[in-house]
Design goal:
The chain is α+β, with helices and mostly antiparallel strands and about 350 residues long. It has 2 domains: about 10-165, Beta-Lactamase, CATH 3.30.450; about 190-350, GAF domain (Beta-Lactamase, 2-Layer Sandwich). Helix content is about 40%, strand content about 20%. It contains 11 helices and 12 strands. The chain has helices at about 10, 15-30, 50-60, 65-70, 130-135, 140-145, 155-185, 190-215, 240-245, 255-260, 320-335; strands at about 30-35, 85-90, 95-100, 110-120, 150, 220-225, 230-235, 250, 265-270, 290-295, 300-310, 345-350. The strands form 2 sheets. Strands 6, 7, 8, 9, 10, 11 and 12 form a 7-stranded antiparallel β-sheet that branches. A hairpin with a 6-residue loop joins β10 and β11 (about 300-310). It starts with 7 loop residues before the first helix and ends with a strand. The model is unreliable at about 340-345 (pLDDT under 50).
Length: about 350
């Protein structure tokens, strides 16, 4: 019987959670830790770095983790945090704390990402004063800081939102499945329904984060029906009803269909003269579009297409935008693979 206010260990296997956490850290190139609702470390920190294992302990030996040092003096314990937030520590290091809430406002765990640097690295000479203050040589500090990733503000905002959405949704799905299991022994028969609902939630979170990170005005995620060879809108953001209803596209036809057929990303108007795309551009009021096909990891064939549009401003998408969408898609795949590893992992094509 599930308790009224379950913790993470009641909902998921910590071994499985550790695998998900490890994959997430590999995708983001960042250390990731999971804490319980009362502030205890639940999992091994993924992607260790010398800064946390060797440098920061020299600064404050009485604290039991790198995370605690970066949290103080703003909060005494991670359990005081109610909403996702970031904390700045020594050497311009930042960590992001994301409370995981499966139902209502009940926090069952905390996901901690970092440390990272925001926007850019400072010149190493600027750290000399801080290094001397903490009794650290500039050389060893430089060696440790090289391992720390640098995130832009847009990228960090998108990642935090996606982490919050997908991992809270994972916990929420596990919570309701266990609640249903208390009621009926036939809950396993509902798995396909759970999978479809969960997949839609994750794809919606992915689309929202891509829209936020790239400052797009509208977008959609289309998935491919392999029986009919047609792409259908799975989730959409700020598209008019007519555009959604008329968005059924056969592979090889329409712009999304061409991207799916060739498994290649398209940037408009940059690529408008390729593959007869100019003739397929119907919504001429759009200033720029980015179309990125993606597929199931370790499986052949395109699974779907992400479409993003800019309408209100003179701006064109770039190859860097494609790279960011790829990172977010790979991150979403981390959240999706616990459902059915052979059926829901996503990865981007070129």
């Amino acid at each position: 019987m599930l308790s009224k206010h379950p913790d993470l260990t009641e909902l998921v296997s910590l071994e499985d959670w550790q695998k998900i956490q490890y994959s997430l850290s590999e995708v983001l190139d960042i250390a990731v830790s999971t804490f319980s609702s009362d502030g205890k470390l639940l999992s091994k920190t993924s992607r260790h770095n010398r800064l946390c294992s060797e440098i920061l302990p020299k600064i404050s030996r009485d604290l039991d983790s790198c995370i605690n040092l970066l949290l103080k003096p703003k909060v005494n314990s991670i359990k005081e945090i109610e909403e996702e937030t970031n904390f700045k520590g020594p050497f311009d290091l930042e960590i992001f704390v994301v409370p995981i809430k499966p139902v209502a406002d009940k926090i069952i765990a905390y996901l901690v990402l970092g440390p990272v640097m925001l926007k850019k690295r400072r010149d190493i000479s600027e750290y000399a004063k801080e290094a001397k203050k903490f009794g650290i040589t500039l050389e060893e500090l430089e060696d440790a800081l090289i391992e720390i990733s640098v995130f832009s503000y847009n990228k960090s905002s998108a990642i935090i939102k996606l982490v919050k959405d997908v991992f809270s949704q994972m916990a929420k799905t596990a919570y309701h499945k266990k609640r249903l299991a208390d009621i009926t022994s036939k809950v396993a028969e509902l798995d396909p329904l759970f999978a479809r609902h969960y997949e839609e939630k994750i794809l919606n979170a992915l689309l929202n984060c891509c829209t936020l990170a790239l400052n797009a005005d509208s977008g959609s995620v289309m998935t491919l029906d392999h029986q009919t060879n047609m792409l259908h809108v799975k989730v959409a953001s700020r598209l008019d009803e007519e555009a959604i209803n008329n968005a059924e596209v056969k592979v090889g036809e329409g712009i999304a269909g061409v991207a799916a057929a060739n498994a290649e990303s398209i940037i408009l108007p940059k690529d408008m003269n390729k593959n007869g795309l100019s003739e397929k551009m119907k919504r001429r009021y759009i200033k720029s579009s980015l179309i990125v096909p993606f597929h199931k990891r370790n499986a052949p064939g395109v699974y779907g297409v992400i479409n993003l549009n800019v309408i209100r401003k003179q701006r064109e998408f770039s190859e860097n935008d494609i790279a960011l969408v790829r990172e977010l898609v790979n991150m979403a795949s981390v959240a999706l693979f616990p459902l059915k590893q052979d059926d829901t992992n996503l990865d981007v094509t070129r």
